[in-house]
Amino acid sequence: MRIGLTGGIASGKSTVANYLHERYGIPVLSADRYANFILENLVKDSVIDRYGEKIVREDKIDRRSLGQIIFTDPMERAWLESKIHPLVRELMQQDLAKYQERLVVLEIPLLFEAKMTDLVDQTWVVWCKEETMIARLQKRNHLTITECHDRINAQMPIAEKCKLADLILDNEGNLEQLYQKIDRKITELTSP
After folding, report:
1. Domains, the chain, with CATH or none
2. What is the pLDDT of residues 66-81, one digit of tens each?
3. The CA-based dihedral angle spanning residues 54, 85, 109, 122, taken in that order and rounded to the nearest 10 degrees
């Protein structure tokens, strides 16, 4: 079984993915990790050609500088996604072949937007309020309110994702409540 794990930005997807991996030993394939690899190793030159050296810091793409471009200009975001998403799909499918009979989690923030639902059997959406996402983004990424809104608005609204979900994981409470809901679902999936 393949679980597609998605949700809003800073909703707690990585928290859920880490718990599934650490508690149950479930392999997690992270679209963000693939995208980071692709950005730095496969499309870096074309990205620098497009945006210039201003997005480079210490020989790496500076995510904040790139984010200021792509999260304020939908055309630029579409261009970058057209370079990265097909390669994410390709690498993810290659790695999925290793887990034919196993339960595996595909952590894909843009699962619906990138049209990758065909890779999964179930979709789990991690949900929290927009105010919570903003607070977490500000703490984690040191973003301004405007930058937070730009990133949130670049994704499908969380309410729409929830309508498409097989399971909604409410991440407004404490971690114990979140983990209990995950435990119940894993027990349901793995019981004979």
Report:
1. 2-190 (3.40.50.300)
2. 999 999 999 999 999 9
3. -170
